[in-house]
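Work package 3, deliverable 3.1, input record:
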Amino acid sequence: MRSCRALQATAVVKSSLQLKLKTSTEDTCISLIKQCHTLKSLKALHASILRSLHLHLHSLTNLISHYASLGSISYAYTLFSHCNSFSNDAFLWNVMLRGLVDNAHYHRTFLLYTRMPYLHIAPDNFTFPFLLKACASLRILNLGSQLHAHAFVYGYSSHVFVANSLISMYAKCGLFPVSERVFDKMPQRSIVSWSAMIGACLQCGFHEQGLLLFTRMLDQGIKPNRASILNATACVRRENAAHHMHRVIMDNVLDNDHSVQNATMLMFARCGRIDLARSLFDGFTYKDLVCWASMIDAYARADLPLEALLLFNQMRLQCVLPDSITLLAVIQACSILASLHLARTLHAVIIRCFLECQLELDTAVLDLYMKCGSLTYARKVFDNMKGRNIISWSTMLSGYGMHGHGKEALHLFDQMKALIKPDHVTFVSILSACSHAGLINEGWECFDSMVRDFGVTPTSEHYACMVDLLGRAGQLNQALEFIEKMPVRPEAGVWGALLGACRIHSNVELAEIAAKSLLNLDAENPGRYVLLSNIYASLGKRREAYRIRNLMKSRGVKKKVGWTSIEIKGKMYTFVAGDRANPEMDLIYSELGKLMERIRQEGYIPDVSFVLHDVEGETKEMMLYAHSEKLAIVFGLIKLGHESSIRITKNLRVCGDCHTATKFISKVTGREIVVRDSQRFHHFMNGTCSCGDYW
DNA sequence: TGTAGGGCCG
């Protein structure tokens, strides 16, 4: 209840306001409107204004604008409806259009615009930017082009405000060349034009071009503003460029700006300098939610889930409440760890929060459960979702695919097709589901139906899935022929699929053909070198294997450190090869030795070709035994009850020898062992794996 | 009355 003193204070304010308004000019009235930071205070002022003086149109327009900016679009619209007949000035309409756009009422924005000609109100250079922004938000290219034509008819298409908005609109709708053309033809450019064009490069993935444009802008003596710096910073992908950009930011004294600080931090993280990102983060005197969320997300993207979760806890300890976007980053981190316990806790937090972006969160949680190995929970989330978009359907499909449940994926795909038109991602999901489950004919049928039934043109990624499918069937030459006949240029994934097939079928000739393209197209990817070198090694071509390892070294490509994690009673344990960090390591190694002996008796033969180090046979075997996968499995066997299945997660593709050994372990221990690797899930049971030895 | 920091699927 409000106290008596508070009521008195409000009365004093009100009476002074009345006095001010009585003697006020329109300018002071507008300035008073601008001082209102809450809807309540604005309404109070509005009431006072109504009592005190006749409102001029200019003040009214400001009032409408302010109501809209405080989120009260209904108040704004009511006011607008009462006064739009007094004037045929576009100003009032522009303000209302802006209010609608800013509050995401895009369709109402277009409706309002269509009423303008009937009232003989001509749009002006301010009208089009708002409408184009609405088109950009909805990605409606047709409408955007129509508005472009309208702007041309009214003589505003080259106006700097309008052209700037056209650049952004076309880029958001994916038509980069048109953005470029608008920019090139502008008779005059402002800093906003440059910023919008750099933003367009960013939007369409032309990062280098965006940076070149930024440099060109600086060379022309144009002082960068905040937006151009933000866009250019987001274009940076290399460490050198990052340091250079950091200097530009400091030279322009923008390093105290929150958005710029945040963008700088993300830039270093993207360039592989998560350490620099963290030290910037630690140095920020004020950390807002965006800043916390960005750093958490950066850790997750850098494959450092524990750091991400630790930071999330610190954030909560400082009483910063997470929003949906922060939680999405935390979900990503959790899905790397594949901790089902953590997933359930996080899910509970999300359910309690009643956050925005429910659809996105539900989809992320669904993805999380499936990556934690629980298709059951994932399906439950999917079934309980209030609405489903194409992403949620595709996620569920890929979930079935990852677990090798091809038939279920196809069944779901049938249901989906009746409700929603599949897109290119859906087809990647369903094709890879067919491939993972070995459903060759069904895969071909899906591939054929893409263009025929849905008008989706296959991209290189779809061809990669088909190469994988052919490879699984052992049709390697057909796969090569298929690649050669592709109407689009085969990207790394296509050759990668062929190389993977060559590993399974020990075909060194085709492997070399695949590798030739691959080591150029995907030269930065350590996995490609490792795979080729392993193929050579498995065929006894040690010299060739070393050559590839050396090539990798000379190109400065670093092999990713492999780790395997296992969750025991809600706690995550992570192992790396030859690990000695766990305090129970002596026990683990002794149990490992016994287990290896048991499976050898069952017929397991260590495949030492996976060890390249120049060491003697017995030591080699020891090195194989100490692989992180095996250490984690043994730890699970020691710690978990006899009934429970062993679930482990490897950050890279599972090693061939470990795959064989795990089959034997599942046989001798009678345990179900579930391995999640970077590609898919392997369910081991009674000596066989759900992947059918193809991955 | 124009641009603008973090986010779901393969």
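The CA atoms of residues 132 and 498 of chain A lie 45 Å apart.
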